[in-house]
Amino acid sequence: MNREEILEAVKEAMPEKRFIHTLGVEKTALELAEHYDIDAKQTSTAALLHDYAKYVDKEAMMAIMVEQKMDPKLFTYNQELWHAPVGAFLAKEKFGVEDEAILQAIACHTTGNAAMSTLDKIIYLADYTEPNRSFPGVYKARRLSFDSLDAAMLFALANTITFLITKRQSIFPDTFEAYNYFARLQIEGEV
């Protein structure tokens, strides 16, 4: 499926505000991909499809998660996390995406994990910093994204964890593991 066909399907699957967000994620992701010498087509596809499942009915998402034997821990955490792994499944099923790098970037864009590829980090950070985002620290996160993906991930994960704690929301274990991984890199002087 080409970019225009993906764009049309994505636009139909979400409200206009989320579609504008998606275009911002693609723009930011492509800028980061160029900066870090990552494939533009992979990046564009992952960025455009990252929120494709965001507005899928919760029962339908649950059915997919059960049928595909996705991590059962997902059921005990905020349903906002579900659209990432379900989106990766739909990218493969509806759009014919076979590239595991793209599917993984979609699947981990909400939680992160301790084994993120460069593309995973780019999609996570593009989602976090796209031009329509406005929150304390977004400018620093944008700057860090072009200095060091690892430093930007540590910053973004710390902010996300802090935000969730202030809201008294549970935090998915992969997010803690990702934070710990990037914190260790900083301690070891690799960030």
Reconstruct the topology from this structure.
Layout: H1 3-12, H2 16-36, H3 40-49, H4 58-67, H5 83-95, H6 100-107, H7 118-129, H8 138-147, H9 149-166, H10 173-187
Q: How would you describe what is shown here?
A:
It is built from ten helices and no strands. The chain has helices at residues 3-12, 16-36, 40-49, 58-67, 83-95, 100-107, 118-129, 138-147, 149-166, 173-187. Helix 5 (83-95) packs antiparallel against helix 6. The longest helix has 21 residues, at 16-36. It starts with a helix and ends with a helix.
What is the helix fraction of residues, given as a range? 55-70%
Strand content of the residues, in percent? Answer: under 5%
> Helix segment count?
10
Question: Spans of 5+ residues with little confidence (pLDDT < 50)?
Answer: none
List its salient traits.
globular; 191 residues; mainly alpha
Summarize this, please?
With 191 residues, this protein is mainly α. The protein has helices at residues 3-12, 16-36, 40-49, 58-67, 83-95, 100-107, 118-129, 138-147, 149-166, 173-187. It starts with a helix and ends with a helix.
